[in-house]
Design goal:
Radius of gyration: 24 Å
Shape: globular
Distance between the termini: 68 Å
Length: 635
């Protein structure tokens, strides 16, 4: 029997004892995973609602010491660390449910996004600085325990030490520099990656880090060889003292080849703690403040009912860069004029809530066409044996994420040469039928854009490179559309509003084209950029600086790294939302712990920093209470 990607994935799920009927007639892996995700999510929610009924509406509110809103990447960490002290009663409220076996398989990462049943499916406002191939940028944000750690692409990068040293300078608190935060990165790690070094990596943490299987392939070695030709270093640890260099990235996978996420590492092992409770499918609508502006409780909606819970000590919001400022504003905490404009009574005027939005925009470059079969093409290469290898050993194609190598470089405009402002990703796939659909979906482009561009090159081996603007100067915002918690907020990305951003990003694309076309390492495979012009750029001179800028505007998208919308800062900073203990200014008993607190975005993937923020937040909270008398607040 001739294997297809669909038949191989079906076979894999059978080998893993998938406990639901598997559709046999799916026309693509994407549709198969979408259907199964919908069935699983519905079944999990029905079981949860049946087994864990809502309290009687006439009953008094349940009271906890700490309430954590959001069990995502950071919130899961906070919940684990606070409930480790048995004298504290801890509640975790999560809008979604548990991740599934589909989320746990690294090789299915591209297909686990954009599912209505477990994704917030945010979208941006109309884009002001893009071409006609797209009008909005659609965001995939996992709605469930573990948050985006359960459906991202599992790249483990901390960022540059200067990112954190800059935080310390901006906030005036040395405790947020890299030297002081290193212990939190080490604390989270169970490190078995490519760069063992006890000075920079931990071995006893809950979160397993492994080597990248894809990084062992021939194209990955060529990535490093080409970099060395151009004078860059290769094979260095990006997570110690990051330099301009190229190599394989460490992955967040478990010892048996599954995904490492904060649900598996931090929540699942503690579900039986007697002082810890998780309420799933609980969408928090409001934080309650008393007359002294102290956070005393939360109102959440579950199965159609609004339910109130109370906190004796603190409430910690870990909803992420979009949901955290949205919840604060729905609770009357935010820019006063904006709150009044949507009919919300102002409790605390904090102008910075929802402002300072920062992200990592990226653009795809390619295909770089090869004359030899060194890339991966699922329709050609994926076999039933790959499913057997993963099921038996946790290795092989399904244990990897498709990213063969990464690189950090500084653009010509960057003054600090070692503090890279561009991050590059090597995507080791050829051009085949499924490629346009995946890229259209990932980038939010109108369907048909990549189809027409790739049509002449079907079934040819290739590489693509994702070029990321890793130190964006443009800032956007999150605001409310209405006072209804069920309505999506307005996300104004404001990409490329700063003129340096578009020229820096275009310079990165120009670099990558030279990297593939003018090095001996790639010449042996005949690497050349596809010669037809990208849709929307047909009237511009091919390979001119203007052409590279056009590529950015036509194909650019989010790398799903939102941050900064409740930034940490000094008390005298009018746009700061939290202090360096992550306490919301002018509100008692309320903190934020997620990537929204970042004063400036780090220059790489955000999941590792998000876990670190959770570890740091838990330490800050516990230090305020561990040595004090345990006094119940009257509610």
């Amino acid at each position: 029997m001739v294997s297809t990607p669909v038949s191989v994935v079906v076979y894999l799920l059978q080998l893993l004892n998938f406990n639901l009927p598997i559709p046999q007639n799916a026309d693509s892996v994407e549709s198969l995973i979408r259907n199964l995700t919908t069935i699983l999510s519905q079944k999990h929610m029905e079981n949860d609602l049946a087994q864990n009924s809502n309290p009687m509406l006439s009953a008094p509110p349940e009271i906890y010491d700490f309430i954590i809103v959001g069990g995502g990447t950071s919130g899961a960490v906070v919940a684990n660390r606070l409930s480790a002290n048995e004298k504290y009663k801890v509640l975790l409220l999560e809008a979604g449910g548990d991740p599934s076996i589909l989320n746990a398989i690294p090789g299915l990462a591209p297909y686990n996004m954009w599912h209505e049943s477990n994704d917030w499916l945010h979208s941006s406002a109309l884009l002001k600085n893009y071409g006609l191939s797209k009008s909005k940028n659609v965001w995939s944000r996992f709605k469930g325990l573990g948050g985006c750690s359960t459906h991202n692409w599992m790249v483990y990068n901390r960022g540059h030490p200067k990112d954190y040293d800059n935080w310390a300078n901006l906030t005036g608190d040395i405790e947020w520099n890299y030297e002081h935060l290193l212990k939190y990165f080490k604390r989270l790690e169970d490190y078995e990656g490519s760069y063992p070094d006890d000075k920079f990596h931990g071995k006893d943490g809950p979160f397993h880090i492994s080597r990248n299987y894809v990084g062992q392939l021939p194209a990955a070695q060529t990535w490093e060889d080409a970099a060395v030709e151009l004078g860059y270093k290769a094979g260095l640890d990006f997570n110690s003292r990051q330099q301009q260099s190229f190599g394989a990235t460490d992955l967040k996978t478990t010892k048996d080849g599954g995904r490492s996420d904060t649900y598996t590492a931090y929540i699942k092992p503690i579900l039986k703690r007697p002082n810890f409770k998780v309420i799933r499918h609980a969408h928090v609508h409001k934080i309650l403040l008393d007359s002294s502006r102290r956070a005393i409780g939360a109102v959440y909606k579950r199965n159609g009912e609004l339910i109130t819970v109370k906190a004796k000590k603190e409430i910690i919001i870990s909803g992420g860069c979009v949901n955290t400022p949205q919840l604060l504003m729905l609770s009357g905490i935010g820019p006063a004029a904006h709150l009044r404009s949507v009919g919300i009574s102002v409790k605390v005027d904090l102008p910075g809530v929802g402002q300072n939005f920062q992200d990592h925009p990226f653009a795809i470059v390619g295909p770089f066409l090869f004359n030899q079969s060194i890339s991966h093409m699922p329709n050609r290469d994926l076999k039933l044996e790959d499913a057997e290898e993963y099921a038996e050993k946790g290795t092989g194609y399904f244990a990897a994420n498709g990213i063969a190598g990464i690189g950090f470089i500084s653009s010509p405009k960057e003054i600090s040469a070692e503090w890279a402002d561009l991050q590059l990703f090597q995507i080791n796939i050829g051009v085949e039928q499924a490629t346009p659909y995946l890229l259209n979906t990932l980038f939010g482009l109108k369907h048909g854009v990549f189809e027409s561009y790739f049509e002449p090159y079907m079934n040819i081996d290739a590489n693509f490179a994702a070029v990321t603007l890793s130190r964006q100067k443009s800032v956007g915002s999150i605001s409310l559309a209405t006072s209804n918690a069920e309505d999506k907020p307005i996300i104004d990305l404001n990409y490329y509003s700063h003129p340096d951003d578009i020229t820096t990003h275009a310079a990165g694309i120009k670099f990558v084209v030279n990297f593939y076309e003018n090095t001996n390492a790639w010449a042996k495979y005949g690497a050349k950029l596809a010669p037809n012009k990208f849709p929307g750029c047909e009237k511009i001179v091919f390979k001119s600086d203007e052409y590279w800028e056009c590529i950015v505007r036509q194909s650019g998208a989010t790398l799903f790294h939102p941050s900064g919308t409740c930034k940490m800062g000094r008390p005298e900073d009018p746009m700061a939302v939290v202090d360096t203990n992550l306490r919301v200014f002018n509100v008692k008993g309320l903190r934020v712990a997620d990537t929204s607190i970042m004063p400036n975005i780090t220059n790489s993937n955000l999941n590792a920093p998000a876990i670190m923020i959770g570890e740091k937040a838990a330490d800050l909270i516990l230090s305020d209470y561990i040595n004090s008398d345990y006094v119940h607040t009257e509610l």
